[in-house]
């Protein structure tokens, strides 16, 4: 009986945990898991373990959590210790999914069969930290997963295989994330099986044309600018669900907006003005068209359908969302 492929896994959030679970369930040996250090989270700011760490501990997998893997960075001793641990852990290949730490060439050179990255876009479209959010925000018709042979560049390695997913007009980052996590898990298991059989995986260099960068989502981007077209604002709202949550400020209160659709609107109202308000939605004039808002949340409250929200926090025709950007809680 031949020994199964030994896979070192590096990842942190739910997207990565889905891949680790699939690799483990497929019977591959996972001698070591790398994930980011526990970090404060929630209102109590208690240390929280990553979804990848939780899975690893539940399945008795060895876990290391270096703050850095760069010998010339801020934590050279931690990096050196983690690199030595990798070198001393017999394995064949590394799989990386949303790990969040830079992997220097020294680390990528350790696995005999290389390092495979599960990336959440159709490369070279949306290299970088937030490919799912940016694809929705930009109005892309489709996205997908690219398995990539890692190199020292930012998502620039040769492409091993891809899977495509259509982006529906209702998709949020949350819903699309779940579809893509499953697709990524399935793709990497199939690739590992091929690697186990054949000893290598064919790959294709990325084209340079069409490369874009998916910048990390910043909280300040969540403020809706009502001077923009309604169609763009609707995409922004979907892209920022669940984080950071798009918002508008009305009477000094930052109201999160979780669901909305663009509608045709010809009246000559200033951007941000409420032109109608009722159980079917709060309609807000935009730079082009209008936005029918159907799910809202006030500070300290829950996400509510518009009918329930208005029952406790009336928004009436003629009121106006502020045009200046105000951060929630400011």
From TrEMBL:
<dbReference type="InterPro" id="IPR001555">
    <property type="entry name" value="GART_AS"/>
</dbReference>
<dbReference type="InterPro" id="IPR005794">
    <property type="entry name" value="Fmt"/>
</dbReference>
<dbReference type="GO" id="GO:0004479">
    <property type="term" value="F:methionyl-tRNA formyltransferase activity"/>
</dbReference>
<dbReference type="Pfam" id="PF00551">
    <property type="entry name" value="Formyl_trans_N"/>
</dbReference>
<feature type="domain" description="Formyl transferase N-terminal">
    <location>
        <begin position="6"/>
        <end position="192"/>
    </location>
</feature>
<dbReference type="InterPro" id="IPR044135">
    <property type="entry name" value="Met-tRNA-FMT_C"/>
</dbReference>
<comment type="similarity">
    <text>Belongs to the Fmt family.</text>
</comment>
<dbReference type="InterPro" id="IPR036477">
    <property type="entry name" value="Formyl_transf_N_sf"/>
</dbReference>
<dbReference type="InterPro" id="IPR041711">
    <property type="entry name" value="Met-tRNA-FMT_N"/>
</dbReference>
<protein>
    <recommendedName>
        <fullName>Methionyl-tRNA formyltransferase</fullName>
        <ecNumber>2.1.2.9</ecNumber>
    </recommendedName>
</protein>
<feature type="domain" description="Formyl transferase C-terminal">
    <location>
        <begin position="216"/>
        <end position="313"/>
    </location>
</feature>
<keyword id="KW-0808">Transferase</keyword>
<dbReference type="InterPro" id="IPR002376">
    <property type="entry name" value="Formyl_transf_N"/>
</dbReference>
<keyword id="KW-0648">Protein biosynthesis</keyword>
<dbReference type="InterPro" id="IPR037022">
    <property type="entry name" value="Formyl_trans_C_sf"/>
</dbReference>
<dbReference type="InterPro" id="IPR005793">
    <property type="entry name" value="Formyl_trans_C"/>
</dbReference>
<comment type="function">
    <text>Attaches a formyl group to the free amino group of methionyl-tRNA(fMet). The formyl group appears to play a dual role in the initiator identity of N-formylmethionyl-tRNA by promoting its recognition by IF2 and preventing the misappropriation of this tRNA by the elongation apparatus.</text>
</comment>
<dbReference type="Pfam" id="PF02911">
    <property type="entry name" value="Formyl_trans_C"/>
</dbReference>
<dbReference type="GO" id="GO:0005829">
    <property type="term" value="C:cytosol"/>
</dbReference>
<feature type="binding site">
    <location>
        <begin position="121"/>
        <end position="124"/>
    </location>
    <ligand>
        <name>(6S)-5,6,7,8-tetrahydrofolate</name>
    </ligand>
</feature>
<dbReference type="InterPro" id="IPR011034">
    <property type="entry name" value="Formyl_transferase-like_C_sf"/>
</dbReference>
């Amino acid at each position: 009986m031949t020994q199964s492929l030994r896979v070192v896994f590096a990842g942190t959030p739910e997207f990565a945990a889905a891949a680790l679970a699939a690799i483990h369930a497929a019977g591959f040996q996972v001698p070591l898991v790398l994930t980011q250090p526990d970090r404060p989270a929630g209102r109590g700011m208690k240390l929280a373990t990553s979804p990848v760490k939780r899975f690893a501990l539940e399945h008795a997998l060895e876990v290391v959590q270096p703050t850095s893997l760069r010998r010339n960075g801020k934590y050279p001793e931690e990096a050196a210790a983690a690199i030595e641990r990798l070198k001393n852990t017999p394995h064949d290949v590394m799989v990386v999914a949303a790990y969040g730490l830079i992997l220097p060439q020294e680390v990528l050179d350790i696995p005999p069969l290389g390092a495979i990255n599960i990336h959440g876009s159709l490369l070279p479209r949306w290299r970088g930290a937030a490919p799912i959010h940016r694809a929705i925000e930009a109005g892309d018709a489709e996205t997908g997963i690219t398995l990539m042979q890692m190199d020292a560049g930012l998502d620039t390695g040769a492409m091993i295989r891809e899977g495509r997913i259509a982006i529906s007009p209702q998709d949020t980052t949350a819903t699309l994330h779940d579809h893509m996590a499953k697709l990524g898990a399935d793709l990497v298991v199939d690739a590992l099986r091929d690697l186990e059989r054949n000893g290598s995986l064919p790959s294709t260099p990325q084209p340079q044309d069409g490369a874009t960068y998916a910048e990390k989502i910043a909280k300040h981007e969540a403020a809706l600018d009502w001077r923009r077209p309604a169609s763009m604002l609707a995409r922004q709202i979907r892209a920022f669900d669940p984080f950071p949550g798009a918002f508008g400020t009305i009477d000094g209160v930052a109201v999160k907006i979780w669901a909305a659709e663009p509608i045709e609107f010809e009246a000559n109202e200033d951007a941000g003005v409420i032109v109608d308000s009722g159980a079917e939605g709060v309609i807000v004039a935009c730079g082009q068209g209008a936005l029918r808002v159907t799910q809202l949340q006030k500070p300290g409250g829950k996400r509510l359908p518009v009918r329930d929200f208005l029952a406790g926090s009336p928004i009436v025709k003629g009121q106006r969302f502020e045009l200046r950007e105000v951060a929630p809680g400011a």
